[in-house]
Amino acid sequence: MTPSADLEFVSLTKRYGQTVAVDAIAHHFKAGTYACLLGPSGCGKSSTLRMIAGHEDVSDGAILLGGRDISHLPPAKRGTAMMFQSYALFPHLTVRDNVAFSLKMAGTDKTARLKRADEMLELVEMTRYADRKPDQLSGGQQQRVALARALITRPQVLLLDEPLSALDPFLRIRMRAELKRLQRDLGISFIHVTHGQDEALALADEIIVMNDARIEQAGPAREVFNAPRTAFVARFMGGHNVLTLPQGQFALRSDVMKVTAPDEGRIDGRVTGIEYQGAHVALTAVVAGDQEVTALLPDAAFFADPHDLGEVIGLGWDDAAAHPVTA
Q1: C-alpha radius of gyration, the chain, whole number
Q2: What is the C-alpha separation between 238 and 196, in angstroms, rounded?
Q3: Average pLDDT, the chain
């Protein structure tokens, strides 16, 4: 595999007519990073990925790979490869020929390209399916073939557009581990677009949260989760309450909330929801200002002192748990 290289956005912008889909974003990805572009639909993450790949033109700014401006190069000359959400396998070709296809287009002789295809199939543990057609494979197997086909070009950066969205929940979790293993083994950068917070936290060394065409926050996964800078990031990452209190706006993790008797906490609320989640119970209450707060309680603690819908409770937290955020 070709060694990885740093990837950098320099005031990267994408416009569709009067609509700004990506608004002058700047970011530096270190070589060999697993990064997730995370955000809601329409935030600009997929347009960003397609610009890196060369499937969308750059309106302004630049994309640098290893210090080289690749913004206006054709996709095959960039040192990137893209794995599409739909996998886009050719139904009439065998698995081996699907994987070898880009080398065939590049004029690589048959013996060399099929040898390389077999190496890639071994990497993704699909050797025994080499002579099958895509419709004879499961979703997870098709995904592995699509990965092998993308990796055969020896990219410096692999681009993944919501690669797990078509899989069932059990397989999705298994394939997360597979993607992480591959990225570590290959040592190249993976840039992975998702709107799933759990997926980003499970996979990413670095999370780039996008909102309304801009980067809202970027950093190591644990830092983005534990120290959201804005109310949007706190809410979108999940697991947080955003409360406006007399002293300002704060993010509070749901699992640090303490449930007390009324008047014994910092604020009182009325219970509006109780959801059993196995190891935990999510208890939701409405507090002053019509704000909704969730406390995530260990199931043993909740059932030792259960609460009912409509009950008034107190809610408390330690000072250190309240993290100030901007609107």
Answers
A1: 23
A2: 10
A3: 93
